[in-house]
Amino acid sequence: MRPFIFGTLFVVVILNWLWPLPLALPVKLAAVVLIVMAALYHQWCRLSSGSVFTPEMPRPLIILFNWAFGALMFVTLGQLLVDIVAALIALVQWHGIVIGTAPRVGVGVVAAFLSALGVWNAIRVPPVRHETVFIPGLAPVFDGYRITQLTDLHITRLFPRRWAEEVVARTNAIGADLIVVTGDFIDGSVAMRRDDVAPLSQLKAPDGVIACPGNHEYFFDYREWMQHLATLGFHMLLNTHCVITRAGASLVVAGVTDRSAGRHGEARPDLAAALAGRPADAPVILLDHQPGEARQAAERGVSLQLSGHTHGGMLYGLDRMVARGNNGFVSRRYEIGAMTLYVGNGTGIWPGFALRLGRPSEITCFHLKSA
């Protein structure tokens, strides 16, 4: 699939967009080299670190690569659209297909702008989004209880220590009762990311900081990461739960491992084990990195499921494809029977495709209300 995508970028951008432009041959050849280098971005990531998931390059270079890769994608789509329109005009007017220089230049300008906007949206420190959720059976003492969710931080060279410090400061300023992180903390080993994740130890809430793992933790020394995150103050829920009490009333927070765990020789997600022994009359909030099994959670009486993983689909339109791989769940809020599912768009994003248009990043604060 990947060679096909790269091949399409090469053919459309070089032959159908670049080559017809009235540029000198040396300029065109230099542009061809740059286009090929940008299209092979993920190969450079692999060469830099041994993994396509973690580009070990200077941050400005990662930003530049993401902008160039995004621009190639938008040029491909834009030029195909121009070709279709030109073909339709030629068919209606019954003459040959003619595409002038102006449409090609326009495609390039628009593609460069959209890609720049997409990268900026992806790498900024996200704003705080507030959601009110009605919880059946929530005790009055928990009415107004606030939970802040971070998800898909993907701390890397693209989202380094300085970015993490700003996220922590913005999160702590909310003053929520509980902070949760629904996986994909990092890309890279503990040795590579130790300094960049250190600010996460400053996340503070009265009822602590609770988390579940994402699939990317399994790509990089999963057990070492679970131990290290625990030393940073995270209560990792691995197919288990904890109980928060107020004046004799209870609220259960459960967490499961990721669906990819079995492929890495680790414990698969087990919701039954996570809920075993919980107070029977207490509402359950479930942390599950991937949203695909939400209907099963609803059937087991979960009141609120918090997930991530999809990055909201990243781009408007692309989100429909991402939804297909997650049982229809891709961005923000869904009501499944008596359960609310919230799929966070992500606080960060995978540095291999750091673009967002129409699917902004977020830090999300949930205000629980008695139903």
Automatic annotation (TrEMBL):
<dbReference type="InterPro" id="IPR051158">
    <property type="entry name" value="Metallophosphoesterase_sf"/>
</dbReference>
<dbReference type="InterPro" id="IPR004843">
    <property type="entry name" value="Calcineurin-like_PHP"/>
</dbReference>
<feature type="transmembrane region" description="Helical">
    <location>
        <begin position="61"/>
        <end position="91"/>
    </location>
</feature>
<dbReference type="Pfam" id="PF00149">
    <property type="entry name" value="Metallophos"/>
</dbReference>
<dbReference type="InterPro" id="IPR029052">
    <property type="entry name" value="Metallo-depent_PP-like"/>
</dbReference>
<protein>
    <submittedName>
        <fullName>Metallophosphoesterase</fullName>
    </submittedName>
</protein>
<keyword id="KW-0472">Membrane</keyword>
<keyword id="KW-1133">Transmembrane helix</keyword>
<feature type="transmembrane region" description="Helical">
    <location>
        <begin position="97"/>
        <end position="120"/>
    </location>
</feature>
<feature type="domain" description="Calcineurin-like phosphoesterase">
    <location>
        <begin position="146"/>
        <end position="312"/>
    </location>
</feature>
<keyword id="KW-0812">Transmembrane</keyword>
<feature type="transmembrane region" description="Helical">
    <location>
        <begin position="30"/>
        <end position="49"/>
    </location>
</feature>
